[in-house]
Amino acid sequence: MPKSRSVDPGELRAAVAAVAPWLDGRGDEPARDDLATAVRLSLRTLAGVAPGRSVEMRVPPYAAVQCVAGPRHTRGTPPNVVETDARTWLELATGRLEWTEAVESGRVDVSGARAAEVAHRLPVVRV
Length: 127
Known about the structure:
The protein has helices spanning about 10-25, 30-50, 85-95, 100-105, and strands spanning about 55-60, 65, 80-85, 110. The longest helix has 18 residues, at about 30-50. It is built from 4 helices and 4 strands. Helix 1 (about 10-25) packs across helix 2.
């Protein structure tokens, strides 16, 4: 998916709706393609609402985006990184999980002084 292409809100809602039963504990883990699409579109949405290159938001193995205005990095590991799994990211992205709860429980790894700024842009979609 090209980074510069904006995310269609309907496409994002449909992708997240496809995995919503799983997020709500009412279904089996979704197909990898469905999960990947929901993660990638929601991350691209985050990058759109928090443009910049000072924080890298990672959801391995699906995607990573740079976001949040401020000093940018160009080489090596960025100084501000947020990393989590797909389920936790989608729970954060949809407002099902609060940032502080995710960080305190160890479901989200946060490093760098600016990384927590991602929390100010959540949720990115509601379904």
